[in-house]
Amino acid sequence: MSISDLPAVNAGLNGLSALLLAAGYACIRSGRRDAHRNCMLAALVCSTLFLTSYLVYHFHVGSVPFTHTILAVLIVPLVATTASRALRGRFEAHRRIARITLPLWAYVSVTGVVIYWMLYRL
To answer: Which CATH number does 3-121 carry?
Structure first.
């Protein structure tokens, strides 16, 4: 694999993260807490792998500014706080912040794929 392959890897990780977020949301709405936790942790892993790959790629080739990038940076502490509250069993506090984090995280994941298509596939 070369540096030029990383945008496609990044798009795949973003897409998978978005799917896992949607599945996790569906699971919690249906009362399946363990499945929700597993989906959300998997989404967190995908997003972490994405961030690592993204930083490696842009370290080598520079960056292209998008408003999406600002929100992507801001989502990191939100995701960390949301996950931390859940893992500590502070579910009411988790629910309050997750209502903000989930749509923003999903937006960043989906727009990441859209930006990939705009930059590399059109």
So the answer is: 1.20.120.80
